[in-house]
Request: fold
Amino acid sequence: MIKEGIKDSDIIDGLSLRYLKFFGIWRIVNEYRTTGKKNAILKLHLLGTLLLGIPYVIFQFMSYFVIKVDIQKATILNFNAIPALQLCCRMFVFTFCMESQCRLYNVLRKDFLNIPKQNLEVKEIFMSISKTSNFCCTMSLAVNGSIVLFYIIYPGVSVDYILYHTGSMAAVRTGRKKILGGWYPVPIDQSPYYEIVFAYEAIVLLWGGFFLAVYFVLFYQVLMCLYAQFSALGLQMSSLKIEQYRSDINTSLNHNYISSTVYEELYKLLKDHQKLLRYTEELRNVYNPLVTMTLGMGILILIIGAFQFLFSQNGSNDPARTGKLFYTRQSSDLQFAIYSSDWYKADIQFRKTAQMLMVRANKGVTLTAIRMYPVNVETLMAILQFTYSVSTLMSRMTE
Reply:
């Protein structure tokens, strides 16, 4: 059980937590770390997500049994339901893995590793990665917020299309417009039900759009900080120079004493590497279900898009065809960093320890889907190739 919170002064230099603080998530993390209890803000997030998201997803899939549906309308229904499912999954992962999630936030501390505080090169690494993290988080919120506001201000789904038509959505110009697709168990083309549904969809979109981005920030910052810690460790390993220690300590000291001192530094770095590996394993256990869900939904979107493109009457002119894939990977080339040290000048004890560390660093640090497929560029390209193959097969079938 964690018994201490994280102060702003403990955070990696340059890392911004303003979005987590604004939505109360940073308070959730710190209160759980100090008390072990889930506070009211977390319960509000979970309750709001379930009350808004679950009914919407149910109504979306009930549409198949109530209204007339073709492949184009099915694509719209699925695209609208998937973000709500993603948000629910992210909330569940965060809520039911609070202990691990809060412990993972230790990697945001600038003193997480045994690195001298005055090391300017490490500070530069932290600042650079913090800027990248801050930019990605800001862009995620800005893009999601812009999309949400655009859809609320310019709703584009005709109520008449949902209730009475199939084929191209753009061809139906009658009826009032609603924000999202899907049927509801009320006469949505009549007042006051239309206004109630419009307000409900606006609230769902605002809640889901912003919280999807916020929980992306929550998970993404941990990944980026873990990457920063690996990078800092690699820098420390590459700086293990015999000549540097000889000049820093005392040129009159014998070689054995200097080698022993360098070995002690290597042993500290070995312990730090072991610590990072433990956190990496915990991160995998927490995030792998989320990555599996996200990757699976991404594959589903690609395949649905291929079906919609090939089998719809006007697939090439449909502006609603969109897709989103999220994948994360963080690793550090520690082997080269160790090789860059003066291992060949050190004693046999140092060389054996360095060799062992290189072997342990040989396995890359990456998230996996279904506990076996690494989520990286190769996996993404394999998914695209699979989708292309499916599209080609379906195209030939239609011909």
